[in-house]
CSON015300 protein (Culicoides sonorensis), 302 residues
Amino acid sequence: MEENLTVLEEFKRESCEIYNLGFNENLKRLHHDHLPVFVTIILLNILSILMFLKKLVWILKNTPKAYITKTVFLCGIYLVCNLMTLSIVVVPRSYFFCDSVIHITFVLCAYQMFNLFLRYVDGESNLIEFHSERPKKFNFSTPPCCCLLSLCFSKISITKRRISITRILILQLTISHILLYIALNIIKINDEETFNRIFIYTIPLIVGPILIGVWGLNIMLRLFVDAASDYRLKEKYFALQLVLIFCKLQPALFESINQIFFNDFYCQQVHPPSVYVSFVISIQMFLLGIWAFKLYKCPLRI
């Protein structure tokens, strides 16, 4: 009995080493039953690249110059996510680095979205003028900080200072997470044991700025949605938020379900769970990229 348990533990230990496979080791373990996963992800990446090039040509020809750079940036995030998922499939041990690239791209896009929405309304002065003509004052109490702020204030007027505060709420997410993820990747490269030991203590540093940043993004949407009603801002904002949900929350949810209900079932497969999750994310990002392209046509075609 003890011998059987020892064999089982050894099997689980060896199977879980697939988390740290490099490129050559991963190819050696490739089984013909798993070729469809690899081939599908590669095809989705090729299609994503071709689709993005088509988008780029259209944007350069048809989008007003003031919107071009930011529109390209916001449409490109879906291609970046697809390329990173392919990298995870090819080299499973690159998971954290690729996840960091996706996350940094997201926080950069969040700030670029604020700037693009501001361009849609032709600047802060026009936005303030638009809200000054409305009978109701603006409500800053939005999720996830709505309960706290409702105790402090409910509805206030729009000023340049308050627009700048909204910008800072989003910008702090961009700056803090770029610095944090760069530092974590440096630590992981130099000493993975230290990284595994300290990572849990960085979770508040990750979650805190995200909550503040999402609050800023929700305020941003309320600021601009009526002033630029022809630009489908809600859909564009939702398309960006889905990147965070699919690429960050979804893998964490899958991992939690695996640990609680399936007793490391995925860890006993030929490939690590990151490969299967990456397969799902590749499909989602490809479909999101198609939708985003239609959304960002709206400055000229609604």
In short: The radius of gyration is 22 Å. The longest strand covers residues 138-139. The beta strands are 138-139, 155-156. Residues 122-227 form one domain.
